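ok trying again, last paste got cut off:
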Amino acid sequence: MLRVVSLGLIGRASRGRRGLLALVVIAVLALLVGADARAQEVAPAAEPERGATGAPPPDPCDVMWTLTLLDEDQRALMHDACELGPKPSGELAAAMARLASSPGWHAGALAHLVQPGGKTRFTAGAEQPAIEDIQTWVQLNGKAFAALPEGASGARRSAGLRARPAVHPDDPSGSWGPLSDACGEIRHGELMRSFLDSVEADAAPEDLPFDADFLECVGVDSARLRGTRVLTVRADGLTSLTAIIGTRTYTHVRVFDRASALKIGKHRFHVLVVPEAAPVTLVGRHQNLELPLYWHAIVGRNEAVWVEPVHMSCLELSYVADDDTRLYFDGVPIQARGVKTRLPGATRRERTLTISLDQARARLPDHEVVALKHVWGTADAPGTWTIRHRESLPAAVKPAELTRAHECRVLSLDFSEPAKKRIAVLGVSQGESCQHSPMWADDLRERVRRVIEDDPAHRERRQYANFSAYAAAADALSALKSRLNPQEGRTTGAETGADAMALVGTAAKEAWRQGIDTLLSFELQCSPREPARSRPSAPPLPGRDTSEWSYSLKATRIDVRSLFARGYHGRESLDLERFIHVESIGFESSRIQEPVLTVLLDRVFAVVGVRFISAASSVPYRASLMVRAGVYFDETEGAHSWGIPLAVVSLGPTAGVTWSQKLVVEDDGGRRAIRTQRPQICEQLASRGGLDAATRAELDRLLGAKSSGVVVGLRESSRAIDQSTNPAAAVYEGVFRAPRPGWYLLALSKEEAICVHATADPRELWGDIAITGGPLMFGLNKTFETGTAAKLYLRSRFGATWYNARARWIGYGLFGGFAFTDYRGARSDWSDLGGTAGGTGSASDEQRLWRRFSLLLGPMLEFRSRATAAEIEFRARVSPAVNLGVVDLTRIPAEAADFRRRNVNDGVLDVDFDVFVDLGMSAPVGRVELGGAIMLGYTGIDDRLALSSTTAFADANLFVGVGLFLGGAR
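nice, full thing came through this time. structure:
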């Protein structure tokens, strides 16, 4: 971390004991800061890992690559001029003029043009401007002016001074005069004493002794001074001063060393002659400061610079960068001690800098931080540097905002380039109507995090960063939203009422400092749909919501990395379409918000592929499932007019699938919860985090077994809610209908597959009624051949059937019912009644009538076919029963004792055992099953069918009947 110590007022002169004490304190602080700075500067050179990548060593001319005001060609031109020395050319003159007129520190970079070869000045755009001659003569005679003793005139002192040229060194024609007698009055006059007192007190002087009169006294003809002004620069502590002057016709750069300054009393001054109304930038190198002092103004009058010392502050700078990234602060490369981070090749560096921070009247240009990234070249094209990042820091603040020495500003930067881009959700908002809908956006931020961390397509390239604590960025984005031009596709400019680049940069700056590459914001809108009673009464397909709401989720992406990779600079207006990307998606179910969010993130980050948009993991096997998929196409591929194939594989017993042993609760489309087992591959597909090797191999095997699957074609949805302005994004849908209950694997690709459970109700409540009689009932004996005595058999039952969890075609259950049998005719030897053996032709036949009323109770086993192609199912039920019967002997006379089995009562309880086989078929009618059946029965199994003699209780019968079935399970 960079820690900055405030030096208070730079260049403060001592005055008396108090001044001496202050000077000592300043000197001690300066030594401490200088020692710390030197230690930190030396430390990086001792790091064995520094430069391990072979990055070129620091070059002073590399600062030219940080000049964001220039285009790439102009930066290269300035770099060559710095390394090889400037040569007059129109292109170089244009680049220098651009820098000289800039209000920032960029003009100071021109100082590098005069350093090679020991040059002290350079002019572009004119051969020899007159201002150069004036400045040279002022420097020559200024020394003599400063050395004038009190009471001596310039004429009397000229003979005793050091010999000086008789003519101007740059103008042999002459016409340059010596010191005049007025110089003595100016040098030791009241105005000079007042000026020096102000300098001693670090206060702004009321009047300046260095003006046109001073220039005339040192021998400059007044005709040459037309259109010029004088800058008095306090040079205490300065090792060098560079002046950059820009006019419409030329750009002049001149360097003044410490020896060229005028020493008057205890202080040193540079007296500069500059054109009136011209932009001037001063770059001062202070002996105790690493960063130069800058001053910039358009000069309209004589001024004094740095007489009031610049207020200084401190900056704690912490940045993460690799060895190919170099950081510049105001054009000065920052050397800082570094420690390795967990990111490959990235080093965290920390440094404390002393920076200028003063009021606006100090005319300090803003500071600028620029990071350069080295771009490796080839044998034919050498490597170069490109701007990685740029941002400005204010150097002028209100008086109340001036910081104290120990109150350091903190600047954290992250220039690392991790393999995974860091994504942060800046904000989530929702419309007011969503308060009344079943959908809300409170947990949307967490859902985004889960998708990015768990989904393989995003997890391998992106990681989630928590940005909720950075209120500054949220405020900046709010300002951006309210002030920028709301019309998309238009470049911003003056009519927006704000600098669009600054607003976007402010919002993104905090994110970039935290190492975040992309900012996301979401907006949810909810709209009520038309009432259900106005829509068709047919039930909707599973997979489509039945709610009364439709939703729209919009995502806005701000590409922070792209914004700063552009350098956050340039003279053209900023086109927001390059950095802000908006995507939206519509849906009609609050239960599918997570798959919808995944599809939306695919669109936002241009992830090519196909995704399921479905919340139904189970569906009634007779219902058609609406399968929907979100697709993002490759730009070169385009949409598929022929549709998208959906592979469907049955996970039945023939598929060789391993089943999970644990029970799970599933949603069959919102109707009810079902506890069931599911295949092991479905367990893996339902879990987050992608597929392991075993699951992937199993998936490939199942999809490769074509005999076990079918292909369903999905077509592009034409619904308005699915339309997208992005031509690469679309929604496809199709209908899948399971041929029978069970688990099915639905795959859009080898990476995108889900399991769907085609459910059948695990239980059924049913009832049936069957009837037979007459010739369809068989009860023979050996004595008579007249057939059964039963003329009518009526049976009704109610029962419950439970079906196997994995094989819904087999069920077991219990039933209870009622049966009525009407017997008429001879059944045995009725000799005790005096009747004929045939039971006909006698009045006593009317007495041979009896009936049986039975309660039936027993288990059952059912085999049931399941079909959806033709919704007709075949059923076979085998059901033994206990027959608790009451035999009605009212019409049997008491004299027939054997037939009554010696019972004197007319109602006698008789227990028999029956067995029934029902063969039938059924079809769904509404929410029930309706069908018919053929009933095969054997009543009275414990009684024999063929007897030599019988009673009213020996009632064994075989029969065939017909019945009607009504079931409650589909």
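cool. The chain has a mean pLDDT of 77. Residues 16-46 form the longest helix (31 residues).
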